[in-house]
Model the fold of this input.
Amino acid sequence: MAVKARGILPQRQKGFATLRFVVGGQLTVAQMRKLADLARREGKEMVLTTMRKTVELPWIRLEKVPEVLKECAGVGLRPGSTGMRTVKAVLPCAATYRCAFEATDVMGLYDKVATRYFGRDAPAKFKISISGCPNYCMHPYLNDIGIVGRVHPRINLDKCIACGQCARLCRGEAITQKTEAYPASPLPTKAWEEAMELNRAPVFDATTPLDAIILDEKGLPHIDYDKCIDCGLCVRNCPTDAIEVERSGFTVMVGGRGGRKARFGNEIVRIASEEELFTILDRTLEYHEKFAQGRERLPDAIERLGLEHYKEHVLEGLELDGKQCSTMKARSG
Amino acid sequence: MTKIRWTSGILAQKQREYTTMRVPLSGRITSEQMDKMADIAERDGKGIVLLTIRKSIEIPWIKYDQSLKVQRELQQAKLEIGSCGRSVRTVVRCASTGRCPFEVIDVEKKYQEITDRYYGKSTPTKFKTSVSGCANACANPYINDFGIVGKAHPRIDFSKCDKCYKCVEACKGGVFATEDGIPEVEGAITQEAITIGEDGMPRIDYDKCIDCGWCISNCPPGALGAERVGYGIYVGGRGGRYPKFAHEVARFVSEVELFRILEGTIEYFRKFAEGRERLVLVLERLGIEHYKEHVLKED
Done:
């Protein structure tokens, strides 16, 4: 493996290198202190963070590199994600158990995916991202493989108290209205009052309204599944648990890329189980290995051979549950 | 009490009593700031910080009643929380910072200028900008409301050319050893805009050339130079739920033009957005020609 693949990046300036560490979007206090300390001693008092949520330590003298890497290893900082022909740092969203939109255990999945695939050889760089919900914060469509957590809701009208909370959430209202009216809003009531007092923005942004939940004349909710994007916000915020999980899993998007020749990937599965997800990942990497010409990236290979060719090889024999979409859902309304 | 703007930077968590503090840094943090954040995360949070895709750092798990105290402490270390709400969000810069072999413009300077002038200014809804130092477009200009890409237009001085053809290799994405064989830099993508002419001299096919400047960096005798350096501008992209690639509204403009267009775009956005509509939707509704007429046309 080339030196580059081990987390050492060349700089324009001779004799210096930048070290890249794969941290999965999280730094511990010990890691931060170590990085700050090393930047002070060996670098230029500067630490960089990147678009793929790795951290970089620039301006390290080449002869100091082994020493610095050794110190970093002591606090669990793994160098890597620099080769042109490997699976790059897996990109998890920032949900980490605290985001109100998170529909799946992002960090749990991150650990599994990163352990299994990160650093593997591939014909060209191969990027994987994980978003916790269909807000697509981690741009699944700009990665070779984009994984998105999804929850398909079902309403149990026996439990429903017709509070209308779900419909309001689905309209994107929950965070723009006063919380008192919403018993299970993600916004803390006391915090809201303080925020109003301080003329401070109440917390997180409203997402684009979907309006997929319609209330009938009795105030009972009904889901318009054509509009629903399976984000699961209604499921998690129903005060009586009347909205249940019909099924949950992962959307897989394939063949996107950012940068110079940016291209959107295609959604190939709407909701796959975890087992199916890993089958698709395994087979996609095999597919890339088998069909890429030279240093061709997966999106280029798919463009050359056609999406159908890819699907034939990768989805064969998988009995995928639920509806499949050929492309991303177009914006409605 | 001082009024805090919409850009406040205090985010709600699923857990009602906790909040996450967002510190926009655009990917660069000093040792001192890092230590400060570590202290806060250890004392008031859960001993971790999160990195975001727009290169900010977030400190999660801060108790709500501690948030103002934490904010003041961060301010002492010259860390302002923010980049939320209906405003010009943190300007994402690529990771060049003067050390990337590909960088053709001064990303740092552009970032500072744009941030000083526009960051936090109110807009109908969020407005995202990014600055990439070269045509590799690492900061994803295509999915920002306003994406800036540095460009260097190459020209060959044939009197200096010694026919080593490194430029031809560079444009094919060849591998270059910068020093003693390590570490090596690989070209990004095969562009193949430079070929060898009948006279044995390299020829640039300007239709294929994307002004990335990689050949200029890889010409040992310095025969390839930048005829001019400028910016490509992409407007009206978005990521998230309904992604859309931006329109390329200018292929190659000067610095003065860049700021004129940025100013004009923000004005245009304020004037024509209905409600909380993103720029991408304004352009969808009114058409890119409408935008060009209002923003690009010289008075």
In short: Chain A touches chain B through 87 residues (CB under 8 Å). The longest strand of chain A covers residues 243-254. Chain A has three domains: 3-79, 91-152+247-314, 155-228. Residues 3-79 of chain A form a domain with the Alpha-Beta Plaits fold (CATH 3.30.70.3340).
